[in-house]
Structure formats: C-alpha cells, structure tokens
C-alpha cells in the first residue's frame, strides 16, 4: 500500500472518532442480554443500511440447525424477534478477496447493578475509556468494522470484493447465531471477529462445554441431618473431583502445543447454582451450571465420558441422585494456521498502522471463529480492541484502541479486498 493512501485511510478513520463514540454509546445503551437483543439489532440494522449494504435478518431455526455440526442445545427456546443482522456489500467488479466481518451483539448479564460505579447500560466516557456492559465484549468491535467501512466510503472508496457484515446473537451461550448465518450460505475468503483481545491476532481457541448437574437428595428437618441427604454436601465433593480433573488437564504433558506457555489454560467454572428452599431443611434439590474448557483436538464425546466417569466416581449417599444435562455450549476447540494469508495480512495491517509487531494469541475461551474455521471453509481470526473487566463490573473499552482497530480493519480491507471508486 502506498504511503499516501495509508495516511488518507488513517486520517479518515481518525475523523470518525466521535462517530465511533456515539455509535458505541447507542449500542451499549441497549440491554442486549439473552432474549433482549432486538433493540440493539435494530440500531445496527440501520447502520448497515446507511453503509449501503443489502440487509437481511436471519432467524435461528432450531429444527433446521439441530442436525448441523457445531450446533449447541439452546438455553432458551424463545426465537420470536431474535434475529441476526447481515449486510452484504457487492462491488461493481469483484477483483479482490471476499471478507466476512462478524461480531456478536449479545452480552452477558451485568450482575447486581448497584455494584457498578454507574448503571451498566448507561454508557459514559472517562478519559480514554468507554464504560458499560458489552462496551468491550464486543460492541466496540462491531462499531470498529462499521466505521472502517464508512471511513473508506468517506474517501470515495468501497471494497472491490464482496464484504459481509454480520451482527449475530447467542455467541455467549451457544454460537447458534453464527451457525444460522453459516447455514444461510454466508462464507468468504476470510472472516475477522474483532473480539476484545488487546489487538492480538487469534491463532487458537479452546473448546467449551456447558453442563448442568441436577442433584436430587432427601429433605429432612435439621434436628437430625443424618436422616436426609444434602445436595450441597454432594456438590462440594463433586466440585473437588472436577477441580482435580482440571489440574490434570493443566499438567504440561496433557497440554496442546498452542497452550504450552500459559499459566493456567484450562478452567472449570461453577457459574450458577439454584437450589434448596429453607435454611432449616436439608437441601434436597439443586441445579449447578458448569463450564469446562478443553484443548483443540479433544472430542466432545470423550469429554462427556470423562466428566461422567469423574462424577460417577464420587461416593454419594444411596438416596442421592446426580444427573447430567448438556445445554448451551458444546463447542469444539480449534487451531488456526499461523502462516495463513489471513493471519499474515492482519499482522501486516497492524504493523502498518501501529508500527509495532502484532502478537498472536491462543485464547483460553471460545469464539464464533470455530464456525468459519471448522465448518464454513472460511479461514477466520479475531483482532479487536483493548478492554477490561469483560464479564465483570465496570466493563470498559479503550476508545483509542477501538479507533486503531478501525484503522487496522480499514487498511486490511484495502489490502485484502482491494478498493474501487464509489458512485
Ligand atoms: Zn465476545
């Protein structure tokens, strides 16, 4: 890329700094937790239309998706008004490589709002940080790719290849939003997801499995606890055994090579418990929701077998029953070829914009990359802004980093897709 064009692109994105802040603020102001994504999706639909793309809404048809590889059993059956938004740019003449720019609009619950310094869905800027649930994970990424596209248009250019903008739902629990888009036929020569991974380039992600452990015991008056079976006592024992398995998978000889130097790649998390009904009654019922991480290459059925064996090995009272139920993420891990043209090209765009080397990342979580990479014949990676406290209180994203990500994406589009004059 010649230096004149490069500096024009950088300036054009920089001029959109205020647009980036206002676009991001209007998205963060929409609570888009599971089942409530419609308001945020209608905002982004308008943005995609203003960018001149042809917009479609893709629903999650569970009957259709359930037989596909990568499908995860849903945590909600509510599908009304819950759509993915896709905007397709078609060039006058397709001379470059096509591209999908994907982001998820769903956010995780904020927890008790009073534990935030400001309400989670009332975005505000303090210094370089924009605060609010979803600011980093990952509305800033969506705003970055939209403004990258817009900045090229401001210069009188558009991509000389098909570019598909996607704002999907359910990334935080199943990935069925991205799967629905894949099933609708959207593939490309590459896909980028600007997840908030600190401007690194993703080269591996873990598999993630959710399961719910349902424990049924025997209620009794606490005057004689031995006449009952307490599900929480059983839960302690099971957690300890699962933690032992977690340690085993973190041993150096069990590791996938991409995670060799990580401090603690595999994390098992008990994220939610519901059960019991009275402090003076032996608790006889609970549902405990777990998340386990595992390495690329490990098979879902093998993970299930191992979990079931571990739980079966815990000695429980005869009248206590443990049942496992797999809803939510059943997500395989994946490794991305470090030498793929996509990775080279993202790193090159990063270097041109920031004048620094782009680090690669093996992330200890899952992303929607797996759909493109494993099932969509579309090489994919993540490259997105610096954020803090994602899934925590006072989540925030760096505005300057978001602007720089938009610059990198604009330069990437120019190199990958090529440019043609608009109009
Ligand atoms: Zn995310």
Describe this structure in words.
This protein has 423 residues and is an alpha+beta fold. The protein is built from eleven helices and 20 strands. The protein has helices at residues 3-14, 17-28, 38-50, 62-65, 135-154, 176-183, 231-250, 300-312, 341-354, 369-375, 399-416, and strands at 54-59, 83-89, 99-104, 124-126, 129-131, 157-159, 163-168, 191-193, 201-205, 207-216, 268-275, 285-294, 321-325, 330-331, 334-335, 360-363, 380-382, 387-388, 396-398, 419-421. A six-stranded mixed β-sheet has the order 1-2-7-3-8-17, sandwiched between helices. Strands 10, 11, 12, 13 and 14 form a five-stranded antiparallel β-sheet that branches. The chain has a four-stranded antiparallel β-sheet with strand order 4-5-19-18. β4 and β5 (129-131) form a beta hairpin. α1 runs antiparallel to α11 (399-416) and α5 packs across α11. The radius of gyration is 23 Å and the shape is elongated. The two termini are 23 Å apart. It binds zinc ion (ZN). Its EC number is 3.5.1.-. This is N-formyl-4-amino-5-aminomethyl-2-methylpyrimidine deformylase.
């Amino acid at each position: 890329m010649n230096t004149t064009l490069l500096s024009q692109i950088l300036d054009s994105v920089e001029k959109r700094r205020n647009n980036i802040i206002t676009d991001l603020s209007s998205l963060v102001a929409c609570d888009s937790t599971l089942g409530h994504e419609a308001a945020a999706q209608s905002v982004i639909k308008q943005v995609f239309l203003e960018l001149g793309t042809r917009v479609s809404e893709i629903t999650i048809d569970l009957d259709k998706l359930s037989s596909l590889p990568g499908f995860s059993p849903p945590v909600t059956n509510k599908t009304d008004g819950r759509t993915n938004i896709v905007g397709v740019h078609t060039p006058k003449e397709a001379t470059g490589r096509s591209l999908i720019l994907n982001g998820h609009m769903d956010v995780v619950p904020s927890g008790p709002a009073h534990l935030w310094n400001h309400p989670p869905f009332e975005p505000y800027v303090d210094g370089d940080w924009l605060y609010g649930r979803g600011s980093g994970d990952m509305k800033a990424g969506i705003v970055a790719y939209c403004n990258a596209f817009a900045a090229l248009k401001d210069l009188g250019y558009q991509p000389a290849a098909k570019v598909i903008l996607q704002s999907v739902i359910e990334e935080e629990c199943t990935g069925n939003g991205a799967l629905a888009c894949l099933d609708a036929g959207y593939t490309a020569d590459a896909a980028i997801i600007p997840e908030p991974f600190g401007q690194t380039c993703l080269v591996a992600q873990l598999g993630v499995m959710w399961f719910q452990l349902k424990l049924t015991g025997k209620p009794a008056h606490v005057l004689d606890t031995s006449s009952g079976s307490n599900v929480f006592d059983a839960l302690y024992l099971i957690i300890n055994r699962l933690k032992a398995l977690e340690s085993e998978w973190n041993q150096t000889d069990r590791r996938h090579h991409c995670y060799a130097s990580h401090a603690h790649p595999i994390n098992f998390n008990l994220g939610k418990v519901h059960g019991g009904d009275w402090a003076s009654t032996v608790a006889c019922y609970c549902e405990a929701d777990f998340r386990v991480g595992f390495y690329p290459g490990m098979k879902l059925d093998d993970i299930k077998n191992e979990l079931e064996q571990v739980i079966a090995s815990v000695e429980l009272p005869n009248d206590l029953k443990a049942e496992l139920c797999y809803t939510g993420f059943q997500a395989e891990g994946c490794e991305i070829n470090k030498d793929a043209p996509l990775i080279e090209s993202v790193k090159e765009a990063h270097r041109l914009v920031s004048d620094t080397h782009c680090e690669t990342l093996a992330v200890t979580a899952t992303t929607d990359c797996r759909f493109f990479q494993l099932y969509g014949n579309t090489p994919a990676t993540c490259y997105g802004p610096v954020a803090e406290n994602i899934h925590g209180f006072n989540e925030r994203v760096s505005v300057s980093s978001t602007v720089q990500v938009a610059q990198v994406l604009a330069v990437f589009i120019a190199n990958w897709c090529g440019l043609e004059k608009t109009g």
